[in-house]
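User: Earlier you gave me the apo prediction for this protein. Now I'd like the version with zinc ion bound, so I can compare the two side by side. Same sequence as before, with the ligand SMILES added.
Assistant: Got it. Here's the input I'm using:
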Amino acid sequence: MPQDHETAIPPDPTVPPTPTRSDTRLPIHDSPNQLSSARMKAILIREHGGLDKLTMADVPDPVPRPGEAVVRVRAVALNHLDLWLRRGVAGHTFPLPMIPGSEVAGVIEHVDDPNWRAGDEVIVAPGYSCGHCIACLSGNDPLCRHYGLFGETISGGAAEKIAVPIRNLIRKPAALSFAEAAAFPLDMLTAWHMLIARAQLRIGETVLVHAGGSGVGSAAIQIAKLFGATVYATAGTAGKASRAQALGADATIVYTETDFLDDVRRLTGKRGVDVVFEHVGGETFERSLRALARGGRLVTCGATTRGEATINLRLVFFKLLSILGSTMGSLAELHQIVKLVEQGRLHPVIDRILPLAEVAEGHRILEAREAFGKIVFEV
Ligand SMILES: [Zn+2]
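And here is the structure of the complex with zinc ion:
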């Protein structure tokens, strides 16, 4: 059985156990109650390092706990998180060994629940939480003290199978391929929560989206347009810029050729933008703040370049700026997003689909910033 874990909430016998940050539940060591000796192929990161650390391993099948389903993975998408997990992050400990993979779509193989059957096609919500604390009940799942992510705090879906809490199952829209279904949950949710919940984007506002060709950037362009904003997107190449424009960006800035701050001032008649969508970090943060109009909001979910930046406090108080942090979003928001994808109002953006055996090539492409949209692996 899984080991007991510290909890602030009295155990509720009606609520299925939830994996926690300290519970890696890796299918590495056969547990005493394991029912089968079946094994599966999985990408297994045993230690941090280069691309050679992405090894295909033979591990025991996941064993579902009460309240969990087993999903046969058909597609799993790549995120910057996978790069952090592989390389390691100074000051952060990942519970290795770990199977990466946060965005999963597949077919239910085993479930004991009246709402689901084996054979149902599903998207797996990438974040999990207890589901019954005040944070969860108020739609602030990432504030739950048990919040975690597949492929970060617990093994993910870069494998033939994954066991997940039943509440993480979302019916896959029939019109989407498995690759499309795996290509958006984490990025769309992250971008949605940043723009809608945190920055409270309003119709008619202006938004600067950094790296419009990234997974989260291509999601942000679409969401900001859906909410009636004017969108300026940066991109590293003219080719990516034109694809960002095709996604809906009103104007694009090739940041390798011009200073995006100059361009934002030109595009807005020196006013600046209402919202900056930040995920680049140290390389852009200071200029992102300067790109804001009075009363503007900078919302950040990441630091793919570096995690340190200098902030001019005078700029923050004189211009009444807000700096907002954001991580993931709620399960409720993800259900909303899936509906909008099903209606064709938001679109998964896929750069390419590779077999899972080519996971290292996927990492290389993402690190080299060669992709526009998501890299998805078929399993
Ligand atoms: Zn909770």
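For your comparison, keep in mind: The radius of gyration is 21 Å.
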